[in-house]
Task: inverse folding
């Protein structure tokens, strides 16, 4: 083959690799692509459920397009939590423990304050156990005077286990990374044998642990979250958030119409934002952005409100 022919073949091959949505409905693909353009966020990329039920991808920039083509591994932070919650649900179904089992009765490798030990697995899943620091800092990153800002999920689990729940948080939904660190420790103790369990074990041994250790190509993140569907609904175990939403098995249930997908979750680390949207059944959007928006949850909500209407037939 001539050099010209080889170069032409290479360009054509790269064009196919970067195409992503070539066989997808132009309207849906363009709609999701447009939703990726958000203030304070750059290099948006998304994988979503196509017309035929299979995964399709779109990108907002050439940089994000190359990342998708090269199977760049994205840190998706708290999108780890639906995986952890799904694994917990499998153990509940297997009879290893129940939703209302106190965590101290299920996890015997950590010493608990008596009141904290009575927090149930349901409360940990739904961020309603009152876990936190009196000063409001996140124990995943800061656990006491003089500690640094390097994440350590196991240390966060041990830290909150030894303290009483925060009385100011009692009866409220309050997002807790440390609660999912405890669930990660629980899964490490009772792990089953299977491909999914190998991934869970690998996640729980990382510094961000069950709270946010997942790093993978965006297509793999989509596949992993798709495996958590269909979702099981859980009624709130505490006062919902201000917008009326609450958490189920790792996903945030949004009962108010017009705010995007019925279920969503967002992940935040310095310099990145990830968002997942689903109807809880078969339709799913997973997106990743670069950026440090001042209001990360607001940025995730804006993307959700723009992207989810794209998923309707």
Result:
């Amino acid at each position: 083959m001539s050099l010209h022919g080889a170069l032409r073949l290479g360009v054509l091959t790269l064009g196919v690799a970067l195409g992503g949505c070539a066989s997808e409905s132009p309207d849906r693909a363009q709609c999701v692509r447009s939703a990726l353009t958000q203030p304070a966020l750059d290099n948006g990329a998304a994988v979503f459920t196509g017309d035929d039920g299979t995964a399709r991808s779109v990108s907002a920039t050439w940089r994000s397009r190359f990342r998708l083509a090269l199977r760049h591994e994205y840190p998706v932070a708290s999108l780890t939590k639906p995986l952890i919650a799904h694994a917990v649900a499998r153990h509940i179904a297997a009879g290893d423990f129940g939703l209302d089992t106190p965590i101290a009765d299920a996890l015997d490798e950590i010493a608990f304050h008596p009141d904290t030990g009575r927090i149930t697995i349901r409360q940990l899943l739904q961020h309603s156990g009152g876990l936190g620091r009196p000063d409001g800092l996140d124990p995943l990153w800061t656990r006491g005077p003089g500690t640094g800002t390097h994440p350590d999920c196991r240390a966060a689990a041990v830290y909150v286990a030894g303290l009483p729940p925060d009385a100011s948080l009692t009866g409220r939904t309050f997002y807790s990374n440390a609660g999912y660190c405890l669930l990660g420790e629980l899964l490490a103790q009772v792990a089953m044998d299977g491909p999914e369990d190998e991934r869970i074990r690998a996640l729980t041994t990382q510094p961000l642990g069950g709270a946010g250790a997942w790093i993978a190509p965006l297509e793999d993140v989509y596949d992993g979250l798709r495996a958590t569907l269909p979702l099981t609904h859980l009624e709130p175990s505490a006062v919902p958030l201000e917008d009326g939403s609450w958490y189920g098995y790792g996903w945030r249930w949004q009962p108010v119409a017009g705010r995007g997908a019925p279920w969503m979750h967002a992940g935040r680390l310095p310099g990145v934002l990830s968002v997942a949207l689903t109807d809880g059944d078969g339709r799913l959007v997973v997106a990743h952005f670069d950026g440090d928006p001042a209001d990360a949850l607001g940025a995730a909500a804006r993307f959700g409100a723009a992207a989810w209407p794209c998923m309707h037939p």
Observations:
- The two ends are 46 Å apart (CA to CA).
- The first helix runs from residue 3 to 19.
- The chain has two domains: 25-78+214-311, 81-196.
